[in-house]
Amino acid sequence: MRRPLVFMLALFVLSSFHTALAAPVRVFVSIPPQKYFVEKIAGPLVDVAVMAPPGANPHAYEPRPRQMSELSHARAFLAVGVPFEHTWLPRFAALNKNLLIVHTDRGIRKREMSAHSHGSEDEPHHGSHEEEDHKHGTDPHIWVSPPLALLQARNILAALVEILPGERQTLYENYGRFIGEIAELDTEIMNLFPPGKASRPSFLVFHPAWGYFAEAYGLEETAVEVEGKEPKPAELIKLIEKAREMGVKAIFVQPQMSTRTAETIADAVGAVVTVADPLAEQWASNLRTVARKIAGRPE
Predict the structure, then answer these.
(1) Residue whose C-alpha is closest to residue 295's, from 210, 203, 224, 159
(2) What are phi and psi of 204, to 5 degrees?
(3) pLDDT of 171
(4) How far apart are CA 58 and CA 53, in angstroms?
(5) pLDDT at 299 (0 to 100)
(6) Helical H segments across the chain, by residue range
(7) R_g (Cα) of the chain, nearest Å
(8) Handedness of CA 252, 258, 262, 267 (dihedral sign)
(9) CB neighbours (10 Å) of residue 164?
(10) Among residues 124, 28, 117, which one has the least CA distance to residue 76?
(11) What's the whole-model pTM score?
């Protein structure tokens, strides 16, 4: 009579063990687009928490006590090079000795953000990853470029394989599908901006968050704000003149930033202020929408 009971207890233990193994691994990312990337590759194998949630400013974000508590039990933190990481990554590492910190921007050369001009004519910065991570004035918004997203996806895959070695096949299969989706999106956007035109298509933004996107598709980004500073009156006049020359119909702003100056320019040139959020979690559909707006073909 004791054998059935022992058998049932064994089944219960095995079932509980399987459930424990199947529980998703907790990982943190810095911004919402990274959550999209990680979930595309890992799916339900991971539970992704975003440190700087929608509406927050990743340039100066300070983690909440609850987030720090959750981070103390996380398996990995996938960094992307946004400014708040410079201060907080060492603190995260001290809080959780078992935390794997991965720089998903590894191997990507950052653009210099010019303090002297409004625009996107700056050449890419060719310093090392460590120099770029700590140097003031480089552009962190690498995720808005589909070609650079391919590099980030590769780094994310390597991190996920390290923390989930038993799921290697699934991770590689998901990764293959994801890079196929990125390539399809890249082609779709390229077709909106075919090469060979006499002048590059231009667009005006409040915060210079779309430089890598402009670089990828031969566009010109002109920014109202540079390094967090609004233009002085003389610079504002020049911007209004340039906006008129460009025939600007829309000025792109992101919901995390003030729009007062953008609205002043829009009123002066007869344009409208429209939202283009580089931090939107639905990465692919967001880039597709922004591209169509710049091309003058809104959905």
Answers:
(1) 203
(2) -110, 130
(3) 98
(4) 9
(5) 62
(6) 2-22, 32-42, 65-71, 84-95, 129-134, 146-163, 168-192, 211-216, 233-246, 260-269, 283-294
(7) 22
(8) positive
(9) 19
(10) 28
(11) 0.82
Which residues have a Cβ under 8 Å from the Cβ of 270 and sit 6 or more positions away? Answer: none
For the stretch 69-107, pLDDT in tens is 999 999 999 999 999 999 999 999 999 999 999 999 999
Q: Which of 69, 71, 141, 53 is nearest to 105 (CA)?
A: 141
CA 64 to chain centroid, in Å, comes to: 21
Phi, psi dihedral angles at 37 (to 5 degrees)? -60, -50
Distance CA 243, CA 251 (A): 9
- CA 29 from chain centre, in angstroms, equals 10
Over residues 47-75, the mean pLDDT reads 94
Is the CA virtual torsion 13, 23, 174, 81 positive or negative? Answer: negative
**Residue 5 banded pLDDT, cuts 50, 70, 90:** low
The torsion defined by the Cα of 202, 105, 182 and 163, in degrees rounded to 10, comes to -160
